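Mods, move this if it's the wrong board.
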Amino acid sequence: MRPVMSYGQKSSFVSSIPFQGRGDFGFVASQSTFTPGITIKMLPLADLSLPQEVEMSEFDQLVNDLNDQFRAGKRLSGVEVNTQHQKGGSNKIFGRFIGFELDRKHQVIRAFIRDSVSNKRVEVYPASLMTVNESAGHTKTFMQFLIQD
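Not the wrong board. Structure tokens:
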């Protein structure tokens, strides 16, 4: 069984920690599958203080909600970026969802869909994403679509 730390690693580690007393180390007993008997290792104690409460920002919460709602490979529809300024109106894209690109510094979320017609990667507005309900066997009537099992 090889040592947990070499002597040089141990001495550099001990000199870097703020506490260096004898009671600052814990002993761990383990049983090896290769050699019979019990091995006792001396390991430095970890910081056992309670973690501070982690607060999530609004941006992180929004990203988590979007990731829970939309998965890669799912069929979605969305409005292509900057097409609402064209003469014919906005261009709606149907295709497989690729994923989100996040810019945490500026808090910008970009969504991308692989267009099923042109097979190109197209950027869409994240707020315009909608799942596409498809039926494998037949096309549903409006009432069947509204009343789903």
